[in-house]
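hiii so um. not sure if this is the right channel but i have a protein structure encoded as tokens and i wanna go backwards to a sequence. like what aa goes where. can anyone help
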């Protein structure tokens, strides 16, 4: 199966305008993400999907593959789907453009899910170990069935532990992989009721009866939401260089 890592990147951002071009140890963020995907050896294609000429120019400057997409897309999923339509690839991985420390191991774990022919969409989950994360609505929680398919995602704490039983909690990490047909089906579905209530796009899959296989990983998923997050990521990358 041919695979593609597609990295959606837009210049406009309310909290952090120009985020993909923010410098991290002298390189723009989008280059860190691109090179992490490319150097993983897992993908036949690594492509940035953007509506920004500035991002297009930056990717071209380091020899990357970048495709211009419509400026009217409502989400990164719509953006990657536009690029995926013309690709000769069966598996499409949506790697967020603000994940410069994305690891080869978790991407390999994600792709391995498709050895099961019943899997059309897969994503990642990691154990929640900090109590404050359970109460944080920005930490999206997920519960799964015995096969590992998602039952529900929420910004609230799920499951609710009424009797203080021994249980585990998992955080959703927003890296998705799709069979191409599943991706194109997904983007043609209208936004769903629970998706709009929780502001979680993945609930559209569940409300339409589309299974989402959750793959456990140790990767913690460190995204960048504001300029204040940059020093944390730089420290991680510096530590990796020392190792």
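sure thing!! here u go:
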């Amino acid at each position: 199966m041919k695979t593609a890592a597609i990295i959606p990147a837009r210049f406009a951002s309310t909290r952090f305008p120009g985020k993909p071009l923010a410098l991290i140890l002298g390189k723009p963020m989008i280059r860190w993400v691109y090179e992490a995907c490319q150097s993983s050896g897992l993908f036949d294609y690594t492509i940035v999907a953007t509506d920004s000429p500035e991002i297009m120019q930056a990717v071209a400057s380091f020899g990357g593959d970048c495709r211009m997409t419509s400026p009217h897309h409502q989400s990164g999923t719509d953006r990657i789907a536009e690029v995926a339509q013309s690709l000769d690839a069966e598996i499409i991985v949506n790697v967020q453009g603000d994940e410069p420390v994305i690891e080869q191991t978790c991407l390999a774990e994600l792709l391995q899910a498709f050895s099961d022919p019943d899997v059309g969409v897969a994503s990642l989950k990691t154990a929640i170990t900090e109590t404050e994360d359970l109460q944080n609505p920005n930490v999206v929680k997920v519960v799964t069935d015995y096969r590992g398919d998602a039952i529900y995602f929420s910004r609230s704490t799920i499951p609710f532990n009424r009797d203080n039983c021994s249980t585990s909690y998992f955080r959703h990490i927003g890296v998705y992989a799709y069979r191409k047909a599943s991706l194109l089906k997904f983007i043609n579905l209208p936004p769903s009721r629970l998706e709009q209530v929780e502001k979680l796009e993945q609930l559209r899959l569940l409300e339409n009866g589309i299974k989402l296989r959750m793959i456990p990983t140790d990767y913690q998923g460190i995204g960048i939401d504001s300029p204040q997050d940059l020093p944390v990521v730089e420290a991680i990358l510096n530590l990796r260089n020392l190792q």
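oh and The chain has two domains: 1-102, 118-173+181-221.
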